[in-house]
Design a protein that fits this description.
Elements lengths: L2 E5 L4 H13 L4 E4 L23 E4 L2 E4 L1 H11 L11 H36 L5 H22 L14 H11 L13 H13 L3 H12 L4
Parallel strand pairs: 1-2
Antiparallel strand pairs: 1-3, 3-4
Helix pairs in contact: 1-2, 1-5, 1-7, 3-4, 3-5
Length: about 220
């Protein structure tokens, strides 16, 4: 049984999948797709993903895109501990609840901010407009406050359970992406700070390995 992961650890969803596969001991072959060189934009790549995005898995000839769909598939197809994506209906629904919320409630705002402040200026060699950044900072702060005050209220150890789930990896990797924009997500958010530390500890050393490139490149971006 062959599993390939197409990824670049600059991508937050790709990091989440990498950490999950490593932490669960799921065997896979790593296929590096260099985002900085635009390898995902080459015509041949569209055969794997018409949207020319990563991550992607290829499992015995079956190709699947979209990180959340991939995580659910991996939990069904491979032997992983039940706490990652519980089989019990209500417990699974809680994980799904966060996974569905994070698309628009977290990822949208954080990605927009990082792209505007760091990615676009890196490509165009022109600084981001201050008024645009100011407009985007509000939704970013609000999303992080929702993580701190709603999802992690009452000092819960993890987002939806007393044990780590795929929701925690997805959420943490999104928050860590703010490093590229020099935005301190931890400031004034004690629950979020402690949660990030718990996720990192629970998936050590793979969490640190996955974020090594992010930490190294952040000052340059």
């Amino acid at each position: 049984m062959s599993l390939k992961l197409y990824h670049d650890l600059l991508s937050q969803p790709a990091r989440a999948l990498y950490i999950f596969l490593k932490q669960t001991g799921t065997p896979f072959n790593s296929v590096f797709v260099n985002l900085m060189k635009g390898e995902h934009l080459k015509p041949g790549f569209a055969k794997l993903n018409a949207f020319k995005q990563i991550p992607i898995i290829e499992h015995d000839g079956f190709v699947l895109t979209e990180s959340v769909a991939i995580l659910r598939y991996l939990c069904r197809e491979f032997k992983v501990d039940d706490h990652w994506y519980p089989k019990e209906s209500k417990a699974q629904a809680r994980v799904d609840e966060f996974l569905e919320w994070q698309h628009m409630g977290l990822r949208l705002h954080l990605v927009s901010y990082v792209r505007t402040k760091s990615i676009v200026p890196l490509i165009t060699k022109k600084p981001a407009r201050s008024e645009e950044l100011k407009r985007l900072e509000g939704p970013v702060a609000s999303s992080l406050d929702d993580l701190n005050n709603i999802w992690l209220k009452d000092n819960k150890p993890f987002l939806v359970s007393d044990k780590i789930t795929v929701a925690d990896i997805i959420g943490a990797c999104e928050v860590e992406q703010l490093r590229f924009a020099g935005f301190d997500a931890r400031k004034g958010r004690p629950q979020l700070t402690e949660w990030l530390d718990r996720v990192a500890k629970a998936t050590s050393p793979h969490y640190q390995e996955a974020h090594e490139k992010v930490i190294q490149l952040s000052p340059k971006m």
